[in-house]
Amino acid sequence: MGRGGSQRSGGRRRALVGTASAGVVALVLTACGSSGATPATSSAPTPPSTAVAAVAPPARAAWTTCAGDSALQCTTVEVPLDYDHPGDGSLAVAVARSPALDPARQVGTLFFNPGGPGESGIQILPVALSELPPTVRQRFDVVSFDPRGTGASSPLDCGTSPSGAVSQLTVPARAGLPLPSTGFFTTMAEDCARDHAALAASLDSTNTARDMDRIRQALGLTTISYYGISYGTVLGTVYADLFPARVQTMVLDGAVDLHATLPVQAGEQAPAAERSVVHLLDTCGDVSPCPLGADPTTVYTSLAASITRRPLPPPGNGDDVPVTVGDLDTATLFAVSVPSFTTQYLSALVAARSDNGAPLRSLALEFVTDIDGAPLVDPQWAIACNDAPAHPGPVAAGTLARTLASRYPLIGSYVASYTLAGCVAWPGGRQPLADVRPSRAPPTLVIGNTGDPNTPLVAAKHLAADFPRASQLTWDGWGHTWLLSGSGDPCMQQRVTAYLVDGTLPPAGTVCS
Fold first, then answer.
1. H/E segment holding residue 477
2. pTM above the 0.85 mark?
3. 352 in any annotated domain
4. Residues 41/390, Cβ–Cβ less than 8 Å
5. Which three-class secondary structure state does DSSP give residue 294?
6. 3-class DSSP state for residue 340?
7. Which of 81-85, 238-242, 284-288, 432-436 has the lowest mean pLDDT?
8. Are 410 and 52 in contact (CB under 8 A)?
């Protein structure tokens, strides 16, 4: 999917993107129910016109001090549940703002989206503020919000277990079988359709982009600047397509290949994720003795084989789901996405070798829970699947997993699950992202990392090509997105600041290392 999301290090976490547009981390639901059986490929309906029914403008935002964080200001903005039928109900979208540190020299308002999809923009905002270049903080009000269905904005909760999600097996035992998680995610789709049909069907990037423009109106702004990471690059691209005249500047960091199908996204991500895992294991002993010994790769593959044969006992403390190779895969992708967790990850592998799977489960859950611990599985897959024009069926997904496992044995099968598992039983969305071409967008900055395991560099090159005037800036480093993995790099800071403050794009082909 394009569930490429945000991450927490200390207070930093990764909310899944991918892609399904990531991705994985991107995914999700319509108002009708889902049957247990799905065809090999289900196509979504033709995307609707961007014209929507007349909607009364929002009330002007009234800011108050955020509860629990006196440095931030909070408000809510009312948005229609369905823009085509604005009389059918509304939602209150939670918004937070950090004023410019040098208001006398302020040049604009920067909207920030942390990815996921499904991550709370408000909860991650303090982390983003600490990572943005200092001059950007001085010259911009920074605004973030909880997208509809997430955080404090009517969160979608169909009861799907985060532990159940991360423990799902990722590769069928033999050819011709469905993806092992098909039953689990079929239940998720059916529960969401039964209990939250209207909300689940409304969670897509088109509606969220329209919500973002209502926030702009409520703040009394003519234009906004935007910084989106991982899945946030999808949202930014959709906003630039729908509202190009409202964009001052736009940075898309950890870009998702918006026009790639879910299987193609998985095929692009798998080699990048594999390289990152190889790098982590190969450099295990660079700073201090590696806790996995002289041959970390053999230890890792032996542990994976052992847990596949015999899952570890449940962690306890209310979590009664056994720890499986699915947890190992999820924790591994999280560790290479957020390299600051490497030491904790290696310790979790050591514990797992002694039949203690609790540390692995804890890391795996970072991918599917928000900073406050709220479950993200349902909104993550709802947004990603509703956005995806076509959903591979269970057997096609299983075949892809086996293919990627044979090519990329350390993490390949998991990439297939990360990208599309939740969509195999999810009905087609009402507004899939079938042909988003921001042809009238202003000059745009697209960032990709050479060592990004979630949104590989090739995706940044493809996304930049979708814009009429885009510069693709490369950061030569490991981890997911530049902002969350290398924000201190002065070369990148200089170029991002020059663009956001002065509108100056870096020369084509610029690489910071």
1. strand 470-478
2. yes
3. no
4. yes
5. coil
6. helix
7. 284-288
8. no
Distances, alpha carbon 441 to alpha carbons 107, 152, 189, 239, 248, in Å? 19, 31, 35, 9, 9
For 208-261, the pLDDT digits (tens) are 999 999 999 999 999 999 999 999 999 999 999 999 999 999 999 999 999 999
d(CA 391, CA 185): 13
Domains of the chain: total: 1
Q: Which residues contact 104 (CB under 8 A, 6 or more apart)?
A: none
Q: Residue 153 gets which letter from DSSP?
A: B
Residues 6+ apart with CB under 8 A from 420: 1, 20, 24, 27, 262, 263, 266, 388, 391, 392, 397, 400
Please report where in the chains the tokens 């009234």 appear, as a residue. 62
Domain coverage including residue 478: 1-289+373-513
Contact residues for 308 (Cβ-Cβ < 8 A; gap 6+): 169, 324, 325
Domain-located, residue 482: yes
Residue 71 lies in a domain: yes
Residue 95 lies in a domain: yes
Closest CA to 25 of 336, 420, 378, 335: 420
CATH of the domain at 509: 3.40.50.1820
CA distance 389 to 428: 7
The SS3 assignment for 377 reads helix
Task: Give kind and range of the element (H or E) at residue 43.
Answer: strand 41-43
Whether the upstream peptide bond of residue 47 has omega within 30° of 0, thus cis, is: no
By CB atoms closer than 10 A (0-12, 13-18, 19+), residue 92 is middle
